[in-house]
Hints:
Blueprint: H1 3-33, H2 37-42, H3 54-62, H4 65-96, H5 102-111, H6 117-130, H7 137-160, H8 165-173, H9 178-189, H10 191-206, H11 210-215, H12 224-234, H13 239-270
Helix pairs in contact: 1-13, 3-13, 4-7, 4-10, 4-12, 5-7, 7-10, 8-9, 10-13, 12-13
Amino acid sequence: MSHARLSRWLLAIPMSLLALATLYPLLFTVNVAMKTRRDYVLDRFSLTDALRWENISTAWGSVGLGRYFANSLVAVTSSVLLLLLLGSMAGFALSQLRFRGSSALFVACLAGLFVPFQVIMVPLARIMADSRLIDTYPGLILVYVAQFLPFTVFLMTSYYKTIPGEIVDAARIDGNSVYGVYRRIMLPLGTPALLSVGILDALFCWNDVLMSLVMMPSADHRTLMVGVTALKGQYADDIPTFASGVLIAAVPVLVAYLFLQRQIADGVAAGATKG
């Protein structure tokens, strides 16, 4: 066996084991979701003998995950659109416009990346309660934007720094205002970064539990992840239904990773680029 082939095998074996370890929980969840409660109690590790969709329909309809799915869709879509708008505008200003204090402002945005939500959770909840924004979509959207805006600004600033400043100067000479440069030049050029950052922000918001649990305490306004977490207590004796809920919550994320993995990788690498 040649040295090159041996090296490939030495790399393929641990990667295959890692892939198997990653896929096993998903396959186990699918298998459990297809079982009846009796089959699961008798043998939880055996393969199901048929595809039963009753548990998924029960979790979607009777349990209410369909309503929670809609709640998450509204909150995540609105938050991501607002994040992309504010992040792209701030990234353009911090990377291409020359004004006093821009470097300090960028450092302040970076400092927001190091503040976990748990640190500000109690005072934020009090402020939102005083503002009557608890248990409202605007309140949850504002919290998502505040939490993930520093990350969005950082990546968009890093990307816009790779665009030559001469393009902006030429657009200004042609008579464009600052807003015109942003709308006609920077937004089209920043489309790849906006797509990547938007996907990452959507995944962050979709997978969130703590922020939505604090901001949306009522059952009617729960997001999908909070609803799935609540299933663990309500359906502790009905594991197939709980597994169905986990599967419903995981499918959008899996679809995003399968079809948008290139954009996700580009978004992760965008912060490493520097113009």
